[in-house]
Amino acid sequence: MGRWNKTVKKISVLVLCMIIMTCTIACGQPDNIDISGYEDKTITFTGIEKKDIVLTIADLKKMDCETIKAESTSDKIGKVQATGVWLDTILKGYDTSQEQFSDIVFYGTDDYSAKINKSFLKDNQIMLAFGINDKPLDGDSEPCRIIIRDSDSAYWTRKVDKIEFIK
């Protein structure tokens, strides 16, 4: 009877691991998102170092990316599944974090911008998404879209091609 219980436990653990792996893969991985239509588009980061930093969407996709579920607090967008890289993951490569800045401004190619202040930066993670709902961004959002869980969609800037960091 003891040997039987050990076998059942091992099988249960194996099945649980397989379920977790399947859910992780099915939830949308960065590799599943085809960014070929905008992979060479760039985002310019100003104010981190003396010289501007320019990264392509392909550069972002090579970083430690995640797929998250997010919902805006306004009815305009609602719930999405976003795939991208956390802003702090990018900033870590430059020995800094979003909390080190008094403001961060996100600029879109459509002349829209959103300024986020230090208190908001302290309490919220910011994702630079290159995919939504397991699909590449559409022409109205590429090359990058800002996603901030449980925040007003006014912060979810589309068409981001420049991010300014203010100390």
- The coarse silhouette is globular
Cα distance, first to last residue?
66 Å
Rg to the nearest angstrom?
19 Å
Helical proportion, percent range: 25-40%
Amount of beta strand: 25-35%
Separate helix tally: 4
Structural class: alpha+beta
The largest pleated sheet is described as:
5 strands, mixed
pLDDT < 50 stretches: 13-28
Quote the average pLDDT. 87
Q: Please give the number of β-strands.
A: 10
Side by side, the strands of the main sheet go 2-1-10-5-6
Explain what this protein looks like in three dimensions:
By secondary structure, the chain is α+β, with helices and mostly antiparallel strands. It is built from 4 helices and 10 strands, in the order αββαββαββαββββ. It has helices at residues 2-26, 57-61, 87-92, 118-123; strands at residues 42-46, 53-56, 66-71, 79-86, 103-108, 113-117, 127-132, 135-136, 145-147, 160-166. The strands form 2 sheets. The chain has a 5-stranded mixed β-sheet. Strands 3, 4, 7, 8 and 9 form a 5-stranded antiparallel β-sheet that branches. β5 (103-108) and β6 (113-117) form a beta hairpin. The longest helix has 25 residues, at 2-26. It starts with a helix and ends with a strand.
TL;DR?
This protein is α+β, with helices and mostly antiparallel strands and 167 residues long. Helices cover 25% and strands 31% of the residues.
